[in-house]
User: What shape does this take?
Amino acid sequence: MRLRGTLSRFALAAALIASLLLGGLPGVAMATTFHSPNTGEDYYTGRRITIVVRASDVDSTGVFPVYVVDEDYQSTQVGDWEIRNGERSWRFEGRVTLDEVGEYELMVGPTFVGLFTVHPALRFNNLGVAPDKFFPIVRDGFRDRTTFSWNQNMSTGGTRITVVNGKGKAVVRDNLGSENTGPHDWTWNGRTRRGKKLPAGRYRIRVSGTHPDTGARFESGRKPVEIATRFVKKRRRLEKNGTQTSSLRKNGNCNRGSLQGSLLLTCLGGQYTATYSWRVPASTVKVRRSFRKEAGAARCRSRTGIDRRGRRVRTSFTVVSPPFRFSQCWIHEARLTFVYKVRI
Assistant: This one.
């Protein structure tokens, strides 16, 4: 049974053996007192621990081994401490990394200094971001969101997601509460918690959480992600049946008729003009028109015009019945296909 503040027989034997292996045990007066701020502290596996020991009432000099002893009486040396005459104060500092969980005794030679505890570290592994480049500035369904994923080796008292910008400033903090052991993910829409859009650029996401036993905060590495924007070309087709004209003009002896949405233009020495109009985006870069007509109505001709006004443009599609002695134009459907630029 381990007694706090008292060196066990096994620990004392380990200390004596370690001291002998390191070149013999110097004489230390009983008045010498060792104390350490590490006593009673909590530390974690895989993390470097800074060991500090101070001495007072020293009346002997020499080289003293400083080491720690685990619960299986295995010792790990921190370093050698040379105490010399004439010093104003006696202080030792060394570093050690411990991988076993449990209570450790801090020793200077055969002298017990204090106890500290090593806990399993909270770790966030398998960090991922998919996609690592997304386009949330315009909500069009194309890569509007990204998902940050991770795996944690134990439950957390509280988990937080933090997003920082290129200057290292936190722009998003999302407190998720307690999370269990295992895989997790968090979806981001590219905005702040208040819904404000963030500018295009590179960001980094990390997860942090509090240790369930001690409340100490641990955090993961940072995964880069990019908010991007660009212009792409899109194609669209609009259709109208033959009777959905914007205007009809005739010159001479002409008549018109309709049947089930189709338009019939008949002229005898005259001319008929049917115009179909649509509104398309101002970023339109290409327009193509076509119409479905009666197989024998080869005398129909057409032309396309674009009128750019303000933020939208108006395009007209005109079908003309030529001024022959007799002509017929049977229009079943007018089509407009256009290509335009859109920001994503």
The chain is about 5% helix and 60% strand.
